[in-house]
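Hey, sorry to bother you again with one of my protein questions. I've been staring at a protein lately and its backbone has me curious. I owe you a coffee for this, so here goes:
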Amino acid sequence: MADLRLAGYRQALAAAGVPQRPELVFSVNGYHRRDGAEAGRRILALPPRSAPTASSAPTTSSRRG
């Protein structure tokens, strides 16, 4: 399912003419709260001008991380 969401994200960017920014796509090892927390830490470590304005997570547990 996560692969389908990523493909949809990429298709939407292409359709809107928005360049893809691979540095904003984070893969983690699972779908649990700790995995979401790991992704969150990686997002927060980005320079402010590079940080995303929205996010998506594959499960409720990982979103809570």
Observations:
- DSSP finds three helices and no strands in the chain.
- The radius of gyration is 12 Å.
- The first helix runs from residue 2 to 16.
- The mean pLDDT is 81.
